[in-house]
Structures are given as structure tokens and as C-alpha cells.
Amino acid sequence: MTGISQERLERKRMGGLSRPLTASAKRFAPREAMAALLCGVSREPILSLTGRIPAGCSIEVLEKTYGACPNTPPLPLEQLSLSFGVSNYEEYVRLHVRQGRLALDLGARAPNYLLLTLARHRLADAAEGCSEDACGWICLDAFSHDPSMLASRVNIDVFRLRRQLASRGVADAERIVERRPRTRQLRIGTGRISITVL
């Protein structure tokens, strides 16, 4: 049997797949296989595949693809609670987002420090009795003493925070940091905040 004929035979055995079995392919007995694609927010299955693996064939996952879950409603920022975990020297700021039983770990990333600074300012204003509309606003110039909080860096951090929340299903993620362009003021977009020293 020629190489071409062998290749065609292998394709037929594999149900018409465009690539034949390679010499390194392992041989397995027929078995049941199941795969499920889970929503990154609710962890509910949104796609599942079941079937039998033919004898002599194996399945390899070559890459991962993440997409939006059509059955999961967007998360409004006003319903979320932000929980900060801060190390003693503040070199480590971890952020969790919660809504009821749903909890998202957003990790410890550099932009979290900006959000922590804004959160502290909003909590301080609230403790002094400021109105909700007035709470938390701080001028960008107040950060000028800190090289890590220059205006250009703040803009990058704001962009990354918004992008991260949007990727986790927050509908109005742009509101995580609110701005007043004329006065160069900004604040964290929610008062549902807790800060814990780790």
C-alpha cells in the first residue's frame, strides 16, 4: 500500500479529518470523552461535547479560546463590592470583586494601588460626612509627589482597570474610575469598599 493510500485510509478512520495520524500518536481503546466550556463569571456550562474516541485516535487541545457567555447578564458596578487585601508595606495589593455568592479574584496587579488610594480617599470623605456626590474626589495634582503616580501612569492604570473589569463581565466598567476633566479630579466609582491588611 502506497503512502498516499495509507494517508487516505487514516483520514477515513478519523472521519475525514484533514491531517492523518502521526507516528507519535498513541493508541487508545475506545472510551467516553466529555468536554465543557464554562462561563468565566458564573462557571455554568455554556457548551458541552460528548462522544466516543475511536480506537487508535487521541484528542489534543492545542489552544484555549475564551469568549463571552451569552446567558450571563452583565454585572452593574453599583451592585459590586470591592475588597482590597494590602500587605504591610503596600507592595502587594490584591483585589476581589463580589456580588452575592459570586466572587472574582482580580489578582495583585500594579493598577490596584491607584484604586486603593482612591478607595481610601472615598472612605475618609464618607467618614467625615460628605455627601455621596462629593465623596472621594481628588485632584490628579495631589499625586505629583509620588513618581509612580504621574499623570501618564495614572491614565495607563485607569485604562487597564477598566479593561480588566470589562473582560470579567462588568457592564459599566468605565465607571470604576470617574473623572472630572476640567478640574483634573478623579475618584473610585463605588462606595462599597473594604480594606484589609494582610
Account of the 3D structure:
The radius of gyration is 25 Å and the shape is globular. It has 198 residues and is an alpha+beta fold. The chain has two domains: 51 residues, no CATH class; 121 residues, no CATH class. Helix 2 crosses helix 3. The strands form three sheets. The chain has a four-stranded mixed beta sheet, covered by helices on one side. A three-stranded antiparallel beta sheet has the order 6-8-7. It has three helices and nine strands.
Portion of residues in beta strands equals 25-35%
Main beta-sheet strand count, sense and barrel state? 4 strands, mixed
State the low-pLDDT regions, or none.
14-50, 56-70
Tally the beta strands. 9
How would you describe this structure in keywords?
198 residues; alpha+beta; 2 domains; three-stranded antiparallel β-sheet; 3 helices; 9 strands; 23% helix
Structure described in brief:
This protein has two domains: 3-53, no CATH class; 77-197, no CATH class. 23% of the residues lie in helices and 26% in strands. It has helices at residues 3-13, 111-127, 151-167, and strands at residues 31-38, 45-53, 81-86, 93-99, 102-108, 138-139, 177-180, 185-188, 193-197.
Secondary-structure topology with pairs:
Elements: H1 3-13, E1 31-38, E2 45-53, E3 81-86, E4 93-99, E5 102-108, H2 111-127, E6 138-139, H3 151-167, E7 177-180, E8 185-188, E9 193-197
Parallel strand pairs: 3-9
Antiparallel strand pairs: 1-2, 3-4, 4-5, 6-8, 7-8
Helix pairs in contact: 2-3
